[in-house]
Amino acid sequence: MMRSEQLHTRILDELDMTREIEDDELTRLIYRVLKEASEEEYLSLAEKTALGRELFNAFRKLDVLQEFLEDDRITEIMINGTQNIFYERDGKIFQSDRRFISRDKLEDVVQQIAAGSNRLVNEASPIVDARLTDGSRVNIVLEPIALNGPIVTIRKFSKEAITMRQLIAWNSISSEVSELLAKLVAAGYNIFISGGTGSGKTTFLNALSQFIPKTERIITIEDNAELRIQDVPNLVRLEARNANVEGTGEVTIRELIRSALRMRPDRIIVGEVRSAEAIDMLQALNTGHDGSLSTGHANSPTDMLSRLETMVLMGMDLPLSAIQRQIASGIDILVHLGRLRDKSRKVLEVTEVLGYWDGEIRLQTLYKYTEVQEEEGKIQGEWRRVQEITHKEKLLAAGYHL
């Protein structure tokens, strides 16, 4: 069968590089070349259709990546240089037989992705986080850091925002736990979502945001804009910016949080807290912005508190007790997510922050997911109520009675 590389070269030779070519004109050229090629070597209709799509993607979209991006069952794409492409589908990793025709073509795709997010990636700055137009998260690592690079990792997001109803249908959370969280969000509790990589923190944060009253002014702050806050008319979206080639122009998460405080927000949503911006976020939580939300990487709710303490110390030299008091007064609820051995994502624990006394932050578990059995490789379990919520003041003020 005629190789797509040969057809790609033929089309490239016939393209008029002195002017902009419209999609329709490019499509006509591709199928004319395919018709000529089929006269030299028989190509079935299915083969011509597949080659036509592949060639169009190579010139106008993200080359061989496009078919992975269009497959809704694929959740992660991993490109290890030109010859090895892996993808995750239904929780399992597969190796694809697709390849980039050259390193230059892969590097073109990398630059296209980076430019689409207003990011710069080159040998001098070989690591970058970016996003696709649909919000999918992209990490790029070039040579000489990646010895077998370029390395591209894409975490896909659903084309449609995931709702809490869908999470209940997927058994990621129970309706009882969901109802409690809906009331807590509406009543203005500050909620922090923790979990490991791939546990679904961003998806869950999006779902929680659906319970925010539509009359409020919301400001979202992210490294890369991934959040999809639905049906909030008074919404401001802020995105951090890396330094330019001259090393200037950087806008950090810390600066965005400080600026957001002057923009009259009702709530602030920080996509993910990773570093010294934790101190600015805590100050926002402690200055009247009730109902704010954020996420962070951790293995448990207590581990999340320890990591927040460390992150605050990265930005400001404060006594540990002062930091712990800030955390205890700023965060009301911790929601911990996890990915189980059957690859399902669950809310594992909902924890209330009671306060700070006797030199430590006091917690109590409200709900905990408990495994009951395993059937045909699927884990069966239930969310058990452990304690009633203690601090009900915000709920009562909002008109809720538990």
TrEMBL record:
Gene3D superfamilies given in the database record: 3.30.450.380, P-loop containing nucleotide triphosphate hydrolases (3.40.50.300)
Domain AAA+ ATPase positions: 187-341
Pfam families: T2SSE
GO MF annotation list: ATP hydrolysis activity
InterPro entries: AAA+_ATPase (IPR003593), P-loop_NTPase (IPR027417), T2SS/T4SS_dom (IPR001482), T4SS_GSP_E_ATPase (IPR050921)
Domain of life per record: Bacteria
Family note: Belongs to the GSP E family.
Name this protein carries in UniProt: CpaF family protein
Organism: Sporofaciens musculi
